[in-house]
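Query structure, 546 tokens:
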């Protein structure tokens, strides 16, 4: 099955001529030989531009590859604009499946004989279509505009096949490549599989959406549409329809005089609020899932959809990340290096001085620079080299966060290239850190634990009295235990002495017959030795029982 899937992937790549995009110097002679002999598969799309061919190939290969293309489409600083524009189609313009199948799925899931039982209107043509599901516009009988998200049929089989192949490749990488153990590819693929499988359950997505909406209730920075949870099933989700401008449509945003600086700053604010305030963040923030409201262009507000992939952080990781960010913003590279060692992200025997210098070399050139002046590709390459040099271990639980950060950074470049990411984020993180440590943090924790202590308060006098009674009896108890210990030690010494004497007498009784003495002498000696052993056993048994 894996070999067939691998052949199928290779076939699709060759049919779309993607091997032609690889420079000859990067392809060894045996790869070129195999291409012309074993894999003699003709490029069927020679007349199409490179971006179109890449997009078509990824779309043919299925959800796992489409997700990869979506992430690449946000990195316009790394790709040619024509390729990035074509890959952007993977965000919401993937080829749809038949609307008849979508209608039947909805009716089966909601136990409807006809869609008119629930919907006043239902649009047959899909509003958008992505890797996992497609969306149809509709209207409920109360005239509320909604969208109906329908999971693609049999999507799980394709994802399982691809994940099985990825697991096999990850195991090979982890076992045979020099950096295999450091990169932890098996754990990374496991984490990725979990997020993909979670995305296939629209009931989970509806719960995520409800949680995010509650977190940002009344927010001026982010709006989350209402989820109609009564009509949600594992393969169908119904949500309030939103009207806004896709965040990737910069021309339309500029045409309505959107405050792009504030929009970019609010994007940073939304990201850090989700991560550090809520520990619950939207982890699929590609441009196809983000819109901008049209009500107040001078005070723009984001609108987010598609909550299938969310990330969480535990308290320890969140604290380490915040401290790292603050140290970065303060250019305290020594602390950054020490934090990495303390958290186990690099080996504890790492030379902190050298590690500090390596971090400074990467970060110092990019400080106080807007996004437009930072070469992300160069920074990424230096970070990879530093990680390899100091044996930095990949943290699978942070992969989703890192992916989301890539989305945010790419979005900021597109919206407002003059954005100073460090200056924007630093006050927020410093304020968060103040809330975690110091007097404010202590008062917050006391307030949070107040119900628990108010419940236990009536029992405190009895507990205090019992503790004082035990404290009063403690000296006498310690004296008794000391006396028992001394008695056991004396008893043990006597048992040892009896054992030694008994062993000596037995040995003597065995030697006496050599000297021709009457049998009574060795016999009496042996009896005395046995008596000593008996006494030693009794003393030891008494000690054991004690």
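Result returned for the query:
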């Amino acid at each position: 099955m894996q070999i067939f899937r691998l052949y199928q992937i290779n076939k699709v790549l060759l049919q779309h001529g993607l091997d032609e995009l690889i420079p000859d110097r990067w392809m060894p002679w045996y790869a070129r030989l195999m291409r012309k002999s074993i894999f003699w598969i003709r490029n069927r799309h020679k007349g199409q531009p490179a971006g179109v061919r890449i997009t078509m190939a990824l779309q043919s290969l299925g959800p796992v590859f489409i997700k990869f293309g979506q992430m690449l489409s946000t990195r316009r600083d790394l790709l040619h604009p024509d390729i990035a524009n074509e890959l952007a189609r993977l965000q919401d313009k993937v080829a749809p499946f038949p609307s008849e199948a979508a209608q039947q799925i909805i009716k089966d899931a909601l136990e409807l004989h006809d869609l008119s039982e629930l919907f006043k209107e239902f649009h047959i043509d899909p509003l958008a279509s992505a890797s996992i599901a497609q969306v149809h516009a509709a209207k409920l009988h109360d005239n509320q505009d909604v969208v109906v998200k329908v999971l693609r049929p049999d999507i799980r089989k394709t994802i399982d096949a691809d994940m099985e192949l990825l697991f096999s490749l990850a195991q090979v990488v982890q076992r045979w490549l020099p950096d295999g153990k450091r990169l932890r590819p098996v754990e990374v693929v496991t984490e990725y599989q979990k997020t993909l499988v979670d995305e296939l359950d629209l009931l989970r997505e509806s719960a995520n959406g409800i949680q995010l909406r509650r977190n940002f209730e009344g927010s001026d920075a982010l709006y989350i549409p209402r989820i109609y949870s009564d009509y949600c099933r594992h393969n169908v989700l119904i949500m309030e329809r939103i009207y806004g401008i896709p965040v990737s449509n910069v021309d339309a945003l500029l045409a309505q005089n959107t405050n792009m600086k504030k929009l970019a700053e609010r994007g940073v604010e939304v990201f850090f609020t989700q991560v550090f305030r809520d520990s619950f963040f939207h982890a699929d923030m590609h441009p196809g899932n983000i819109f901008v409201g049209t009500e107040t262009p001078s005070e723009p507000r984001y609108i987010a959809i598609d909550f299938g992939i969310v990330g969480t952080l535990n308290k320890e990781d969140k604290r380490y990340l915040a401290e790292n960010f603050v140290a970065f913003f303060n250019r305290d590279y020594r602390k950054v290096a020490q934090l990495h060692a303390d958290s186990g992200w690099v080996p504890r025997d790492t030379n902190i001085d050298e590690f500090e210098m390596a971090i400074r070399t990467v970060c110092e050139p990019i400080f106080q620079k807007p996004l437009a002046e930072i070469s992300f590709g160069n920074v990424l390459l230096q970070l990879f080299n530093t990680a390899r040099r100091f044996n930095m271990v990949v943290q699978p639980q942070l992969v989703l966060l890192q992916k989301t950060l890539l989305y945010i950074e790419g979005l900021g470049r597109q919206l407002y290239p003059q954005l100073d990411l460090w200056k924007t984020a630093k006050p927020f993180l410093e304020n968060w850190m103040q809330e975690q440590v110091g007097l404010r943090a202590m008062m917050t924790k006391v307030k949070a634990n107040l119900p628990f202590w108010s419940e236990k308060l009536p029992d405190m006098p009895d507990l205090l009295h019992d503790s004082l009674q035990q404290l009063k009896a403690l000296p006498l108890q310690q004296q008794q235990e000391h006396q028992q210990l001394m008695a056991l030690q004396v008893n043990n010494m006597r048992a040892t002495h009896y054992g030694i004497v008994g062993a000596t007498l037995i040995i003597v009784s065995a030697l006496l017959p050599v000297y021709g003495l009457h049998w009574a002498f060795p016999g009496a000696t042996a009896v005395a030795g046995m008596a000593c052993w008996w006494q030693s056993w009794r003393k030891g048994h008494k000690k054991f029982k004690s």
